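Think of the structure tokens as a kind of shorthand, similar to the way a musician reads notation: each symbol stands for something richer, in this case the local conformation of the backbone. In the example below we present two proteins back to back. Begin with the first one, reading the sequence and then the tokens, and try to describe in your own words what changes along the chain.
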Amino acid sequence: MTKGSSRAEQKQATRTALVDCARKLFVEHGYTATTADMIAKAVGVSRATFYLHFRTKAEIVREHMREREEAILAAYRGLDDIEEPTLDSVTAWLVDHVAYWRAHRAEFAVMEQALANEQAVSDEWFGMLERVSARMRNLLDRQPDAEARSLAQVRFMSMLMSTDRNLQFTVVQGHDENLTAVVRVLAEQWLHCMRS
């Protein structure tokens, strides 16, 4: 423990170091190849110390996803805030969203590996998509009744999942030879969803 720091501060510093190091190792080696031992060793602590902070490495990914949630929500609020959506305005939003995915490509790749291997991570991602879709006030508030609102939220959730999968393959995995066309098709689908 460093001079002047409390036990709680030292514990938080160790936790932060584990998270930061894990993220780097996940990007460098992949989620599945990175072990708790590797993370602990890279930080200079024991494996037991790792397990004092996290039960599994999936908890680190879930924590990172929770940290990203506000930025993802803000992005979709930008879409929801388009008062009179047009194909051009929705396409412009998507182009910005693609740029966000590009900027965080390595992180999304790690999340994808974790999603495929950890039910808790998959549940966290699905829960985040549900929370984002539930907070699309403009889209939901213009619905005439509870049934229509519920259906609109399901449409929005479906489009969130579709956008996620499309950007995972085109941006993260590099199958972007048809990215312009994919953006166009997604924009058309979003526009239909927003006008329904």
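Once you have a description of the first chain, move to the second and do the same.
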Amino acid sequence: MGAVCEGATAPKAATEWPFAPYRNDPVEWQAVVDEMTRRRVRVTRALASRAIASPEALDRVLARLHRARPALLAHARRVAQYATATAHELRLPALTCLHIARAALVHDLGKLALPDALRAPRGPFSARELMVVRSHSTVGADMARSVPYLRSTAPLIAATHERFAGGGHPGGLAGEAIPLGARVIAVADAWDAFAGHPDERDHRATGCANLELVRQAGSHFDPAVVRAWLRVSETLGC
């Protein structure tokens, strides 16, 4: 990462907006930041302008917001299904399960703010680009806070990419300092990614996805949540 410009300080967290300038930033960097700012404001306003007070109302708004990215919403719906089933398997209270289901459905909301340049498949991200991509969880949490119906999901969204052994982002939390709902969503989210595209999944792909969760239990994922998911996966045929 480049040196900090005179008179500017490095951002303390990805939530600071816009990001402070750096001496070695390319000319087009400001355009990336400006585009993400515009997208973030647009999505936040769209959420806040709707009277979201039920699952059906939320579903309608999400369908509109994801019109250009239906695969992202399909992924969120699968994660919500897996996370909800895992929460029930853990015998969590009904209200907790409800909050986890709702948070799982909007856990990637911040990705709607990512500029096209940071969504297209290509080579490795630079340090600055990776900071912006990783900010989607905190950006999504900020968006959720603007809607009373989603406000309780914000802490779970923000912590979805923490690691059980520490070293995740944005806060570097570890163990039980990570909200349990976020630990549940992290396992569901990762399994859906590990298993590959739903149309191409077979027993080998889903089995490998489960093995990868087991391999990373204790480092990335809560072992108790992984065990609960493995029991759920047998029921779901995953």
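Compare your description with these statements about the second chain. The mean pLDDT is 87.
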